TrEMBL record:
This is HPr kinase. The lineage of its organism: Archaea, Methanobacteriati, Methanobacteriota, Methanomada group, Methanobacteria. It comes from Methanobacterium formicicum (strain DSM 3637 / PP1).
Length: 319
């Protein structure tokens, strides 16, 4: 099978895996080689001590995923489904259940997030949009609507940076957002609102109804595949019994806690001993980038007004 190169999260990935999600083409020397195999690259004994076991469970009531430190590999095991052998240059996926294929969502989520964290690049669960050549991020909070906010701004002509994972680079005096890939994940009612259809869209996960929405030419909106400077982080919160929009700054302590809270696999990061360096980076980020609470009424009809409030807030912050 032909090996292709893709660009995502500021990396060039070489692989022969066929993704359903639309990915940007890569042109540079690969940072990572990714492949899926039928046999593991090494003999792995279950007697190895589990380094980390996630709190969530699957249907077998075993940990959803666990982590092992091997001699030449880090191993992320999704119990009953797949193993990911990870080092600085390779990610090898050994599948257990080919008929229950979750490789794409695993690789584009926890696996790549872990690889970036391993390299000292913090990743947060957020959408990002390029507004006037600067990035604004919307943390993923419970029913916060980060994707709907990003899609609403895209309808106004602004470009998507990422829909799910946002890696942050600290370069000199700037905080830079690494771009994800030109695909969004929407619930069927979101897709109906923004695209006018949803039944024909591929599902993200076989057990949930979320759909993949492709971004770019002849699709929905536009995508920016380059690093952009982060200018503001919003923590969105939808309230059904509220008619007004409120944007207010949060304290530095709360801002750091929110970044930790909305990290990918924060317990794994803590287990690996990376939390101190991560907290130091988060402290630097909030000194340079304002973090604000965004409280707004629930309902698609409020989204245009919400976008207007966000854009006005950004303009005020730049004065």
């Amino acid at each position: 099978m032909k090996v292709k190169k893709y660009s995502l999260f500021g990396l060039t990935i070489a692989t022969d895996f066929n993704f359903v999600s639309k990915l940007s083409r890569g042109y540079f020397k690969p940072d990572i080689y990714f492949k899926v195999v039928q046999k593991p690259p090494i003999d792995f004994s279950l007697t190895n001590e589990v380094f980390y076991d996630s709190f969530s469970t699957n249907r077998s009531l075993k940990g959803k995923f666990c982590f092992y430190k091997l001699k030449k590999w880090d191993l992320l095991r999704f119990n009953g489904y797949s193993d990911y052998y990870i080092n600085d240059k390779q990610i090898i996926c050994h599948i257990h259940q080919e008929e229950y294929n979750l490789i794409e969502i695993q690789f584009l989520g926890i696996v790549l997030s872990y690889w970036l964290e391993r390299k000292g690049i913090p990743t947060i669960h957020a959408s990002g949009v390029n507004v006037d050549n600067n990035a604004v991020a919307f943390l993923s909070s419970n029913k916060g609507g980060k994707t709907s906010i990003a899609a609403s701004l895209m309808q106004k002509g602004f470009h998507l940076i990422t829909d799910d994972i946002l890696p942050l680079d600290l370069v000199d005096e700037n905080i830079l957002c690494r771009p994800g890939y030109p695909t969004m994940r929407m619930w069927p009612d979101e897709a109906e609102y923004f695209l006018g259809h949803s039944d024909d869209l591929p599902v993200v996960h076989p057990e949930i109804s979320k759909k993949r929405v492709f971004v770019g030419l002849n699709d929905f909106g536009r995508f920016d595949n380059y690093k952009s400077e982060l200018k503001c982080i919003y923590i969105p919160k939808r309230i059904s019994k509220k008619n007004e929009i409120e944007i207010k700054p949060v304290t530095p302590v709360k801002a750091v806690l929110e970044l930790v809270k909305h990290s990918f696999s924060p317990y794994l990061v803590e287990t690996m001993g990376w939390q101190p360096r991560r907290l130091e980076k988060f402290a630097t980020i909030i000194k340079k980038v304002p973090v604000k609470q965004l409280i707004y009424p629930s309902g698609y009809r409020y989204l245009p007004k919400l976008c207007e409030a966000i854009l006005n807030d950004i303009k005020q912050s730049q004065k």
